[in-house]
Description:
alpha/beta; 7-stranded mixed sheet; two-stranded antiparallel ribbon; 14% strand; globular
Amino acid sequence: MNTKYSNPIITKVLDEQNQGSETRHKLFQELEKRLKRPIVTFYTSFTHPVLIEDRDADILEGILQKLDLSNGLVLVVSSPGGLGLSAERIANICRNYSKTNEYWAVVPSKAKSAATIICMGASKILMGPTSELGPIDPQIGVEKRERGLLNVLSVYNIVQSYDDLFARAVSEKGNLQPYMLQLSNYDDKEIAELRAGLELSKDIAVKLLRSGMMKGKSETQIKEKIKIFLIPEEVKTHGRPIYRARAKRCGLIVESKRLNETSWKLFYELHVRTNNFVSTQGAKCIESKDHSFYVPLPKEYKK
């Protein structure tokens, strides 16, 4: 048996680990032939602590300036998330550079939090049976008193706990002291900022959807449809996957891809190669067929 062609793609990728973007070039070419649109990958590492930020939008814009986008654009997204405003910028850049004023998002694996917002700005999302979107409610890092550890908390849960405690204090007929002691741990100004953050996330998602794949629906209708993305009551935790069937029920336009489809196998190979790169060589990678930009790993993560 010829093992050269029987090894899984991850084995080949590990063998090529120190090679550059040329290992991905043919995949871009083949996918563009099939989809009749330029392919651009947008990857930030799940291994290293990096976020989607404005610099990423600037790099992406620089690449799009060099492409013929007469037939639109395909953006392949893989990221644990980042800043909602930066995600909104990225969606706006993709729409405006595309001559069709829209783009397709492809999620070969995971596009979470702010990366889900980027996908919501697309005209459709291509997903396989294992592809994951995720909730977009903001999170906040709170430093623990012991050992300086950082604890990531749901902004929604913080605000809800404050509101619940305040309501119980107002309705209390007897001893208010326990409630006052607990409320002293909260800062009214911080709670107001957290409320604004929650509303901002909702506003970005609703505006993108209302001007895109949910055009014609009201703001109220969209909020109700995508409730699972906005608040953690159903998913329970920010990291929980939202798979394509659930995304479709929310009203998102999702094109389901089969695992054995040739185009999806090509997307999977492109994903494995690029994801390996942002796990071992760089922290972020934004590429097209002819252009490749990456953010190096922080010094402390280099071997």
